[in-house]
Amino acid sequence: MLRRLLRRVSGTTVFMWLIGIAMLVVVVWGVYATLSSGRYKASDWIDLTVYGIAQGSVYALIALGYTLVYGILRMINFAHSEVFMSGPFIGYFVAMALSQSGFFNRQPFVSLIIVLLVAMTVSTTIAVLLERIAYRPLRRAPRLVPLITAIGASYFLQYTFLGLFGSGIKGYPEVAQLKGYWPFPGTSSGILRTQAVVIVSAFVMLAILYVFVQRTKTGKAMQAVSEDKDAAALMGIDVDRIIVITFVVGGALAGAAGVLYALLFKQVKFDMGFLPGIKAFTAAVLGGIGNVNGAMLGSLFLGISESLFPNLVLDGLGLPAPYQLKDALAFIMLVAVLIFRPTGILGERLAVKKA
Amino acid sequence: MNARTRSDWMAPVKSGLMGGLIALLIAMVGLVEVSVKRPILTADGRILLSVGQLLLLLPIILMCYKAVQVFAAGCEKVTDRLGLLATGALSGFFASLVLAALVLLGRVINLRTVFIRASPDLFNTLTFGLGLGGGSVVLLLFGALLGGLVAAITLLPDRIRRPLVLGLALVPLAAILTSALFAGRGFSVPVALLVGVVAAALTFAWRQTQPKLQDRVAALSPSGQRTYQVFRWLLPVAIVLALPRLGAYPSEVLVNVGLFVLMGLGLNIVVGFAGLLDLGYVAFYALGAYAMAVLTSPEMTWHGIHLTFWQALPFAVLASTSAGIILGIPVLGMRGDYLAIVTLGFGEIIRLVFLSDWLKPFLGGSNGITRIPKAVVGSIALDNSPKLYYLILAGCVVAAFVAIRLKDSRLGRAWMAMREDEDVAQAMGIDLIKTKLLAFATGATFSGLSGAIFASKLTSIYPHSFHVLVSINVLGVIIVGGMGSIPGVVVGALALVGLPELLREFAEFRLLMYGAALVFMMLTRPEGLVPEARRKLELHEADGEV
Prior knowledge:
heterodimer, A: mainly alpha, ABC transporter involved in vitamin B12 uptake, BtuC, globular, B: mainly alpha, two-stranded antiparallel ribbon, 23 helices
């Protein structure tokens, strides 16, 4: 009995389990130490969680772009982080023009919607151009080829923006009405107004996308193409068109996410796409890549754990300056998920399939 | 010949506009602005043609050439010569139309509030310094003329065209190289003509005599052939050994190229041979450098060990190798994209950990580690680039030797089988775990060696030297050179690391060019500049099957 078990368990499996257990022990220990020290009040945790949800809902909008494209083309659209960056970047110039003419202060919400629309258009254009120029000619090429192209396109776009518009940080104009808190009734804590706006608008867009994918004919066609391209083509679906639509949807969501991100952090920069991009990808994998609901769930999970983790775990372990390792968490989670549950929380099929 | 339809005239317009748009992009990202001072052709101290202007011309020339090719395709011999010339001129005209539109726009509104590079200098360059009206007309005429010239050259017989094109291409190349290496001021018109004519004549002569020479060599006696072979090898070896004589700055560039060749040889094994796309390759470079720094720097007192470069080198390399295995184990089951993104994650985790305050007492945190001693050979300290060059060269030679020997070994063939199809390879009895881990370990070893030398070269290291961009650089090197091709790594490193360092003004555009090079290579020539035979076959398999 034991011998049979031993034969099935190889050295590498044991090694991985050891890593997993070690990670779990560290997390549990850190949480225990923090909570028993009583350094934080309940309201601190609420603030952090709300911040995490705001962050996570932005990730969700980006993650959908990754997930939709992966579902259909089985490739990681590495340049999606630049699609995300380009929208708010161009949007910044529109916002500045509006703010100089005084319109921004008179009609902040109309202006924000204008900026949002511009950003979505720009991101969509870039996404579609990417598909047309860089990905479509390579659809039948060996696996590594489109991936490398995507990496190249990502850096090309990033540094083109640097060259065109300069390397400085560009500060978005502030919206006076969105300063301060909206208090929660009956408690001492509240929610930052920008965060509330970000969360609500992200959820509205997610809902629209959900209905689009599940209910409309095009959405169903997208599902069919992601299931089996050839069979979908036989059923009379124009696969090329559906792929373009996927990039359009992903691009528009990324552009919107970019403006929300700019609202949260009040600035844009040519390399702002890298970290949110990779985190959103992590979230997509976390939820099971190719799975729309999974991407939303994974994003919220990642956003919340990212905002809680430094205080909740690392602080308890007595690490100096725990927030420095915040970004490492996303990568650690990515690695851990891919190692221990490559199918993600909700997904069950794609990761094991040969891409 | 059929009558030309409207669509026949749309094609050159389209490719002309495309060329113009590319030129526009090159101008607006600032490539022209930085390089307009680097001369190629001069007359009486005035610059006739600068690198910046050449950069504007190149896409236009290329797109005109493409339009002409499209026109000429389909007929065996071009009979409609006038039509061909018109095609070239038309696409050249439309390309310059885009640029003229930019100039006009730039004069009407101030583009500079958004596009920081839309400077008056740029507009001056575009209009040949003739002002808006005259300049635009000259620009348009010039574009049409250029397109016509391109078309005219394609009409020449092959025997004359090749030397001519080569001569035309070599003149700017030689001028740029001399101006970068010896701070020259470009060529004056007579010198340029001389270089061009000599280059063209030599090509012409070489093409005439080469077959005869080959016969002569084949007819030599065995001992004569041996001498010939020895000399054929001695010449490049002598050149490589003498390169530091060029001076301190070229040697510095060569040392950096060497570091990338070393890393490229390693990544070439992982990506090129085994087909595992590793984006966290910089992690091993960082580990090699940090191991060297921690073991040798007098700043690091917590372990009480102080080694010399040579004593620490084995440990640094060993650290990277074992990291290659340890980081390899978790990703054994992953393929393609997943592997790429997880290794990217590993690379970033390692950098963030090095950067954090958490390990500051041990690894220096954001202050890095300084005072790393230089390597000493005998009584000579390798403290400047010309001397370090030989150290790097030795490392590269060893690595290249190992890579060449591995390539056709049992292991190398196992890697390639795995690259083709993991499942089939496993069915053929290849132990995937062992083979993959060996690929990661070998790659990491070379990278660690490179990192260790890097640390002792700079004598100080900081976490930000090990950004994920380094991985992308190395990837670019092997993609441009040709995946799986060992000479390709050298060519790729020279082109992607050497050139931008020689032409310092392009340093800030390095990643832009890497990105463009990756996309361009993948779209047009996925097998790289110096393709490896088997890889080329694989990539073009699909073409043959049709």
